[in-house]
Design a protein that fits this description.
elongated, about 55% helix
Length: about 110
């Protein structure tokens, strides 16, 4: 088993290997001892933060309208109801095709 690495004595390679984990924890990486003493890794972190901010601006998180789930639930219930009605007519022995065109309807 290897001894834990002292954050004050990390090499850039060790820090950069640890960086994804640090980012994932949500810690303030700018307070990490290696960042405070290493211009190279500090610049790398600044570049990563710039890229992350640009990505958030390109693809902003949009909340769906409040009524969306109600519409989805209503649509599912209508399809289930239509399936129940159709299976009741055929005795339930044939599979139900949800988007089948009624007989005699002209083809497009």
């Amino acid at each position: 088993m290897t001894a834990p690495i002292d954050p004050k004595n990390m090499t850039c390679e060790q820090f950069q290997a640890l960086l994804p984990e640090l980012i994932g924890t949500g810690q303030d990486i700018n307070r990490h001892p290696h960042i405070q003493s290493c211009a190279l890794c500090s610049a790398l972190l600044a570049d990563l933060e710039t890229i992350a901010q640009a990505a958030r601006e390109l693809f902003p998180i949009e909340e769906p309208p409040e009524e969306l789930w109600a519409h989805i639930e209503t649509a599912i219930k209508k399809e289930e109801s239509a399936a129940d009605t159709k299976s009741g007519e055929s005795g339930g022995s044939e599979p139900v095709k949800m988007h089948e065109k009624p007989a005699g309807e002209p083809a497009l």
